[in-house]
Amino acid sequence: MEGKKNAMNKPKFLSSRRFKHGTMATVITIVVVAVVVLVNVVAGLLLGLFPSSLDLTDNNRFQLGEESIQYVQGLDEDITITVCMNESEFANTDSTGYYYQANQIIKQYAQYSGHITVQYVDLMEDPSFSANYPDYSLSEGDIIVESDQRLRVVDPSELVVAEYNDDYSSYEYFSDAEQVMTSAISYVAANELTNCAVITGHSESTSAGLTEMLNDNNYQMTDVDLASSTLDDSYDLVVICAPMVDYTDAELEQIDAFLTNGGNFGKTLLYIASFQQVGADETTGVVSSATPNLDAYLAEWGIEVSLDGMLYETDSSNIYPFQSSAGAYPFIGFDIVDEDRTAALRDSSLPVLGLYARPVNLLFEAQDNITTTALIQSHDTATLIPYNYSQGDAEYTDYMNNHVGTYNVAALAQKTRYDGLTPYSSNVLVLGDTSLLQQAVTQDARYNNNQYMVNLVNELTGQSGGINISAVGFTSETFTASNAAAVTTLVIFMILIPVAALGGGFAFWLVRRRK
After folding, report:
1. Residue 448 near residue 348 (C-beta atoms within 8 A)
2. Which of 267, 291, 443, 444 meets the CB 3.0–4.6 Å disulfide criterion with 246?
């Protein structure tokens, strides 16, 4: 009875329509605010764990590529990426946005793989951090990529490359951040590195492009002087780069023993020639090579690097002038004729470039278990610049006119034995000039020098996979969206969302009005 009396004495305003709807509105407001706060908290937590940005640029320069994503998602080893600078300062190192883009790429590795951690250490605020790496002279902006097995320090300058534009009037800048970082991660995560011996002691040339290419693809490069060291079977690849001093019989025996590998084969020699190895006697005009013994050994494998001249292109459409401080150089566009390996290229129509290459002749197709294959050829409009005539001489012009044709600039010889039906081969890969691996072309995604050579060398040495990611360009439209992306953004944010909000508000008002 008392409870009934209390109910009957309840203030009238508590039963009023205004109170009921007002209370409901208050409750709804509190719930909505709570949901918004909760969503923001959860979103903030997820923001650093998963990719959350929308890349609207034409070439997706702020988005990690599919090749890198698949690679890092397959990692089973913990890797730490340490940027030696405050994040804000690193991302704003320059006014052009190059390092902002690089920073976005770096952070995504951790977002796509739970085995990768990205951290930022300000060396100015924590100078003792460098003491953890006594073998390295760390500087601000350096990026340390490390696992329990090994580490690599990336110089920030490696993240951006500069190339002349098509008319060679100015530089264009490209981001190489993804290639550099994915390669570094691959290097520190690799269970085993492929050992490469770089032969020294014969006034060999150095090739920065080759060194970069092999380092980026998990090759451990070691200088070996055959006069004081012996090639053992721990090496899978031997590089001889344009020696100016000939090899002795004993040194060539070491090379041959390496390739034979006790009858097991499975080894590869990369020989890179140069036009500088050829000279002509000023009196007699006789042309000769600086390395006749080495040339004779290559001939046993069915390959000859010609002394007839340097390649030159008569068709200007096949000439790609590269600008340098010394002037413009007429690089020649060559075709890949190795059909077995073109399928693996992103675009097999892209040329391979070279400069003043020596022709690489095949002495036979098959002999004594050795087969030879042409890999890269000139167009049929190429000719030869003679060594023993001067430009302007009648003989010089006649020689070039009489030597127009197609020439090989790279070839492969393989010696094979069979164990049942299983083949085992050793390989001699010959390039007609060091320019085929010059950094100017190996870093340029418009040409196939890098990707083709990486794929080929990896195949011959038995290394699976290869990191080859095209650099992405920074143009005047670097940070503008494509037309399609701009229209999509306009429709979503300027039309759909406002219309949805208005529709929802009107529906809510209509429901309340009818109650």
Report:
1. yes
2. 291
